[in-house]
Write the structure tokens for this entry.
Amino acid sequence: MKDLLHNIDMSSQRIWFLFVSLLLLAIPILTPTILPIADLPQHMNQIILFQDWLQNADSQYTLQWWTPYSAIYPFLFIISAIFEPLLAARIAVLFVVSCVAIAIHTLAYLENRPAWNAVLACILIFNCSLYWGLLPFVFGMAIFLLWFRVTQFYINAEPTLYNDLRLIACGLCLYLSHALWFAAGLLWLGFYYLVARFSFKQLLRRTVPVAILVLVGIIGYLKLNATGFDSRTIYGPNPIQRLLPDNLVNSTLGGLAGTIEPIILASLLGWIILAIWQNRRELKEKTNAPLLVAAGMFLILSLTLPVLYKQTVLFSQRWAAPAVIFFVLALPNPSLKPSIKSMLSFTLLASFMLATCLHWLAFEEQDLRGLEDALAQVKPSHNVLGLGFYVPPEETDLFKHHSLIHIPAYTQLLHHGEINFSFAEFGSMPIIYKEIRQRPWSVDLEWFPGLATNTDILYFDHVLISGHEHDHAFFSKNPLIEPVTEQGIWRLYNVVQNKAAPSPNKDTVGTTP
């Protein structure tokens, strides 16, 4: 009876730890209006394009039911149906972050790991993958944590049809969450098979569900290649260089500029060192071996993979945060009073969330001036060309990533018009163009706005430009456009001449003095 009451008390404590963690994680997400999460509007626009496909028989879009990035989108659809667009975008991020946090705390409970370590592991959710807006990948971690438990049970339990089906179902969920998590999941399962020391008969009995999942992966990979989903491969720093402090900070967190991330990681390292030292005599018994091995697997991936492969950014860096999360969960906690451990873990999480919130609010104040007025003036279903010339001054730069690259995509989210670049051009997305989009205007304007020409402008109804005063002074002299808003970094311009009568002047218009 005493043990039962103790277990109930510990479970209640874990629930409170999870609840407080979720509250702290929500603060920076719900406070601003627009988040510095680069790809977020493009992901939300997939719902806009899905509605177009659903409602119009002659829609230029088509739905890919079986793409390995689609698991998050039904939830985004529900969120978009409930909330207005800008709030829905924030709720979508909150949903993804909360799913990962719940999965971390649940895994800690099921593996009997310290609840304080789970609180600290939640810090790592705000990493470079989240800041770049890789929502399917971030969401996929929650599925992988489930996969981690399912595979352990499958290896140790007697093979039955029910267990086979459960493994296959979880594997398919992992596939639909993200192709890279699916590959990592198969790698993890393969490692388990190697160390399990099955007899030939036992191994053969467990081959069928794995073979089905491998076949799914092969088919998915071939379909992905058929879409032209390719790019040059960039390896980047070698493994030794990736272990340097700056590179470790940028891959493990990699969101906020300044000293806050090094301080947070140094504090986390201090917790780890203290835990190892105080438990050194029983470290082997108190360390969870499977979690530690998973951490090692992700560390190897982060140190050896290229940084860019097949149009996939952060191909190696995205594994650093999962490596640290699993490592923190694997270790015991320091031998301190519970009240002190609670104070330290929640202070660290709260401090990081407060710093994140202040950075995100400063982002709205500093880098989005004029955007609200500009977005309000876009006419429904009008096409918008986005040109981002504004680069935050180095001394006031808030982030380590290009947070402004897809801001023009908010015009499609709010007003349902076409934009010059859409994720529907990526063959891996759930909603893509039926035919390969042949853009008559210059490509890569989201990266290189200076390549824009007068002819490019004429294919659109509006031009949304971010820039300094001299940039806007330059564009205000262009006879093809007229300013709609005249204050702030972001300003909207109407296109005076339409594409039916293109100008013969093809000189680049984006090179401002």
